[in-house]
Amino acid sequence: MTRTTTGLPVEGTLPSLDGATGWLGSPPLTPEDLRGHVVLVDFWTYTCINWLRTAPWVRAWAQRYREQGLVVLGVHTPEFRVEADLANVRRAVADLRLEYPVAVDSDYAVWRAFGNSYWPALYAVDAQGRIRYHHFGEGAYEESERVVRTLLEEAGAGAAGGDPVEVVAEGVEAPADWEHLRSPETYVGALRAERFASPGGLVPGAPHEYAFPARLRALSWALSGRWTVEDESAVLAGEPGRIAYRFSARDLHLAMGPVAGPVRFRVLLDGRAPGAAAGTDVDEDGYGTLDRSRLYQLVRQPGPVGEREFEIGFPDGGVAAQVFTFG
């Protein structure tokens, strides 16, 4: 690996983008089209809480440095099959205000071309098409922005003036409360389900009547009602059902989507309406509507954070749930 006069290494070259299954916000782009621009390649998927918390920074950089020649290129590589649906990706791009090109990478071809393994993953490419920097996961925002400025100056755009961008993130995009976060990401599909507490355990691949245990242990979860637990999702057809989780974190999110039309739900916290602890997708009485596949913020505790028992009920069914995440 060579180093340049700026001290940033050359890690490789921008690979082909031909494997993208679609493009949003732009006609198909090639490395040759991007030559002469500094490029930030941002791998994401719309239900990933770790990427969602980086999105305000990427948006801010795209806006701040566009006139100096920065191109932000989002690459949407799905974690779940439902995220490969182009209509879902298009809605996510609009909802999240991503005003830059997005390569839809539903077959993982661009992911493999980069040798990537993470969401989120950020790669900085110089004006000559060379990869000069990468960062995996959240954080390192000041470092990443310094790299952008360095590469723009190297490309002849002049020194980037002014202070670094200021970001005030809200809702699901707000930084995690790492000090109090004890609950791990928890999948509800059969392939990666852990700490499942309904009596009798999971019965994958077929409709099964589940019940809550007499008491949920810490960091465990359970189903109630007639659910079909598929590889990636727990699916509730047209009848009532509930999910419970005993968690310890400021925020609780659930990636889920409707099977058909909009779905009503209600959230309880320790058996009561969440009140001031309601997340952005529910009201203080705990009611909300599931209208698309995405990550829903269901709890955000305003005060002391301790172990709580969460429950979400779907009186009419019609939901597919994938993963709990916390913040």
UniProtKB/TrEMBL annotation:
GO terms for MF: antioxidant activity; isomerase activity; oxidoreductase activity
Listed InterPro entries: AhpC/TSA, Thioredoxin-like_sf, Thioredoxin_10, Thioredoxin_domain, Thioredoxin_ResA/DsbE_sf
Organism this protein belongs to: Geodermatophilus aquaeductus
Domain of life of the organism encoding this protein: Bacteria
Domain Thioredoxin: 2-153
Gene3D superfamilies recorded: Galactose-binding domain-like, Glutaredoxin
Pfam families: AhpC-TSA (PF00578), Thioredoxin_10 (PF17991)
PROSITE patterns: THIOREDOXIN_2
Protein name: Thiol-disulfide isomerase or thioredoxin
Key words of the record: Isomerase
